[in-house]
Write a structure and sequence with these properties.
The chain is α+β, with helices and mostly antiparallel strands. It has a single domain, classed as hypothetical protein PF0899 fold (2-Layer Sandwich). Helices cover about 25% and strands about 30% of the residues. It has 2 helices and 6 strands; from the N terminus they run αβαβββββ. The strands form 2 sheets. It has a 3-stranded mixed β-sheet with strand order 2-1-6. It has a 3-stranded antiparallel β-sheet with strand order 4-3-5, with no helix packed on it. β3 and β4 form a beta hairpin. It starts with a helix and ends with a strand.
């Protein structure tokens, strides 16, 4: 379960930022997560709670924004949201769309801190 090591890294980074800003506590961590990141959302949420114990993030929330898979379709010459990660095909024309533009994110976007 590599989600625990990811959660520990998120907690360490957020605690470091909070300390630099003189914050007493982190209320929430905002994260963008794509289905191609290789991270299981529920496992990450569980691991985050465990990783926060005994840190300035104890009691904080991990708020995850699900990011859809978007690929560039060379036939339509536009970016298309892929309906299934099992088959990378344009929903408009059916062409294969191997050029992924979005969907592999694992990105902390914001922290809510208390002074």
């Amino acid at each position: 379960m590599h989600e625990l090591s990811i959660a520990l890294s998120i907690v360490d980074a957020a605690a470091e930022v909070a300390a630099r800003r003189g914050a007493a506590q982190v209320k929430a961590v905002h994260l963008k997560l794509g289905p191609l990141s290789g991270v299981v959302k529920d496992a990450l949420l569980f691991s985050y709670g465990v990783a926060c114990e005994g840190t300035p993030l104890a009691g904080s929330r991990l708020l995850i924004e699900d990011v859809p898979v978007v690929a560039y379709c060379p036939e339509c010459r536009s970016q298309q949201t892929i309906e299934s990660i099992q088959r990378f095909a344009c929903p408009g024309c059916g062409s294969l769309t191997p050029d992924v533009v979005q969907g592999n994110e694992l990105l902390v976007t914001a922290l809510e801190i208390a002074q």
